[in-house]
Amino acid sequence: MRNKILEHVLAIIDLSEKEQDEFLSILKEIKIAKKSFLIRPGDVVTEEYFVVKGCLLAYYLDELGNKHILQFAVEDWWISDFESFFNEVPAKLYIEALEDSVLLGIDKQVLETLYQRIPQFEHFFRVKTTKAFVALRSRILSSLQKSAKERYIEFCETYPDIEKRLANYQIANYLGLKPESLSRIRKELV
User: Fold this and answer.
1) Are residues 93 and 58 in contact, defined by beta-carbon separation less than 8 angstroms?
2) Cα angle: 76, vertex 20, 88; to 5 degrees
């Protein structure tokens, strides 16, 4: 299981065996059952999580109780309430397991120490943060510039394995559509 995160990290940075062992030693394994919450609003989040197995969902509930899905996370993805993690403020998001999941958590303070001891990790997490920022910006621009049909096709091309693991209404919510609209789009594409 820890080999999975090591492959993920070594795809971006080089580490000695000693550095690999040190990194693996600071990770905390977390098992979370389907329909359980990893994070709830109000929690102060001190860890970010790498998904070894499973599927999770990050969402926000507005003042009317409407759910707004921000992120899905499957194997080899990172998830957390990053605003809470980075700014040490109460979380605004729910992170819920859609499947039984296994995660590896890394504590923020331990991560800061890791940056000092093994500086390559600053590069690794800068690359991951930059890619996440670009993906978020791309998603925002897509929602502003593209039709619902184009957004759905883009979603399927970008995340082909995720679509099979999600309910129609979850994908529709993520894309800012009504489930009926997504069903209509799917029928048109068949």
Assistant:
1) yes
2) 60
